[in-house]
Automatic annotation (TrEMBL):
It comes from Pseudoalteromonas rhizosphaerae. The keyword Cytoplasm does not apply. Keywords: ATP-binding, DNA-binding, Nucleotide-binding, Phosphoprotein, Transcription, Transcription regulation. InterPro entries: AAA+_ATPase (IPR003593), AAA_lid_NorR (IPR058031), CheY-like_superfamily (IPR011006), Homeodomain-like_sf (IPR009057), HTH_Fis (IPR002197), P-loop_NTPase (IPR027417), Sig_transdc_resp-reg_receiver (IPR001789), Sigma_54_int (IPR002078). SMART domains: AAA, REC. CDD domains: AAA. The modification 4-aspartylphosphate is found at D53. Residues 141-370 form the Sigma-54 factor interaction domain. Residues 4-117 form the Response regulatory domain. Transmembrane segments: none annotated. This is Sigma-54-dependent transcriptional regulator. Signal peptide: none annotated.
Length: 467
């Protein structure tokens, strides 16, 4: 919606001239010829900016400036043909953002108005950011590092728009929390936030999960189902692990995004909804596009405001903030008498790489609190962490009661080009070795590898297709 500008000018011809100056900018303009009319319009309309003449027939323009409510103060450009240094200083002290002398050229007038509107937008962004970012937290996201402050700023800037947000990052970095923050920072915060994990739903059911179905549309459809798109009407639809979506369904999703309309499975009726899309993936979407697994047109349709969440190892200053918040949260859930962690524990947590990111950190903290009832958490209570990612920590001795299955070292790493194998084959060899050590117990292997069992099943299936 274009901003509204009130021009307070008692000379009708000048008021019309200023309006004509602003026609190319597309703003809405209102005119008041005296102070009383101006105050009535300000009270009723609350304009974004006021062009305020000082010499009015019924009062001084600076008196109007002094009466403006401080909690909803618009941008004000003071305009006069009798400027003095003292008047300019007084206008600025009363809250005016700029001061112009008559006569004013069109270009100068437009530039001044445009700059004042930019300052207003910046003030609103900063105010919103201050209100939501407090003590290293931005909604449910935690971290004071520069990387996370950059993420918070992008979310705050994107909050006023309906533009699609595309979140990328390693598994466990908090992509869903980021998506929720996008929703909570927007003007849709009081509407539904609906999350759908595209990797966790069987291929033949995902269309129904997104768009819903009618009773009897397929075997097992015993009742009408609204679907995520219908549930999110007016709010935000979060599609997690988007790159896992079947290519055939991607075309229907593209049409839904372009038109805002869809059809339920088994129905010919077109449903229209107002949905803001937020998507996420732990894969490189461009690699998926090049491999033909993700539609290029869908990628460019969705990749409007990208947010890349940094892995925990790149934001080590945030680790203790996150850990302490998680200790408090999980202690409350587990009714644990937790009071704090020692400096040795802080040092250990901060120096570990956390390949599983925040999710791994949360699992370790829950392990500690469930298995140790003490109020203060010391280093001997920590489970053993995989040494392949463990930085050298002096005087650290892990609790021997928590040991992971030891996986023998791979054969010597490649030394020449002919020894190098494809990354997916190296991953395949490693995972198959872990599964063998676990006596083909895939859930156990997944736990040791800190991934979900569905991830391993999916990889095994893809290997079968590639071989």
């Amino acid at each position: 919606m274009p901003p509204t500008i009130l021009i307070v000018e008692d000379t009708q011809s000048l008021a019309m001239l200023y309006q004509s100056y602003l026609v190319p900018t597309g703003v809405n303009t209102l005119v008041a010829n005296d102070g009383a009319s101006a105050l009535a319009i300000i009270d009723k309309i609350k304009p974004d900016l006021i062009v305020l003449d000082v010499m009015l027939p019924d009062m001084n323009g600076l008196d109007i400036l002094a009466k403006l409510a401080p909690d909803n103060f618009p941008q004000v450009v003071v305009l006069t043909g009798h400027a003095t240094k003292e008047m300019a200083i007084q206008a600025i002290k009363l809250g005016a953002s700029d001061f112009l002398e008559k006569p004013v050229e069109a270009e100068r007038f437009r530039i001044t108005i445009n700059n004042a509107l930019k300052i207003k937008d910046l003030k609103q962004t900063v105010t919103k950011y201050k209100n939501t970012y407090e003590n290293g937290r931005y909604f449910d996201l935690i971290g004071s590092s520069k990387q996370m402050q950059s993420v918070y700023q992008i979310i705050s800037s994107a909050s006023v728009s309906k533009a699609t947000v595309f979140i990328t990052g390693e598994s466990g970095t908090g992509k869903e929390l980021c998506a929720r923050a996008v929703h909570q920072a927007s003007n849709r915060a009081d509407k539904p936030f609906v999350a759908l994990n595209c990797a966790a739903i069987p291929k033949d059911l995902i269309e129904s999960e997104i768009f819903g179905h009618l009773k009897g549309a397929f075997t097992g459809a015993i009742a009408n189902r609204l679907g995520a798109a219908g549930q999110a009407d007016g709010g935000t639809l979060f599609l997690d692990e988007l790159c896992e979506m079947d290519v055939n369904l991607q075309s229907k999703l593209l049409r839904f995004i372009q038109t805002g309309t869809y059809q339920q499975v088994g129905s010919e009726k077109v449903v229209n909804v107002d949905v803001r899309f937020v998507c996420a993936t732990n894969r490189d979407p461009l690699v998926e596009v090049e491999a033909g697994r993700f539609r290029e047109d869908l990628y460019y349709r969705l990749h409007v405001i990208p947010i890349e969440l940094p892995p925990l190892r790149e934001r080590s200053t945030d680790i203790i903030e996150i850990a302490e918040a998680l200790f408090i949260k999980i202690a409350r859930e587990e009714q644990h008498p937790y009071k704090g962690i020692t400096e040795d524990v802080k040092r250990l947590l901060a120096q570990y790489d956390w390949p599983g990111n925040v999710r791994q950190l949360e699992n370790v903290i829950r392990n500690i609190l469930v298995l140790n009832a003490q109020e203060w958490i010391d280093v001997n209570m920590l489970p053993s962490l995989p040494q392949s990612s463990q930085k050298e920590i002096p005087n650290y001795k892990p609790n021997e009661s928590f040991t992971h299955t030891k996986i023998q070292e791979f054969e010597e790493l490649p030394q020449i080009e002919s020894d190098i194998k494809a990354l997916w084959l190296a991953e395949k060899d490693y995972i198959e070795r872990v599964i063998k050590i676990c006596s083909t117990n895939i859930p156990k292997a997944a736990a040791l590898l800190e991934v979900s069992p569905s991830t391993l099943y999916r990889k095994i299936k893809s290997w079968e297709e590639n071989l």
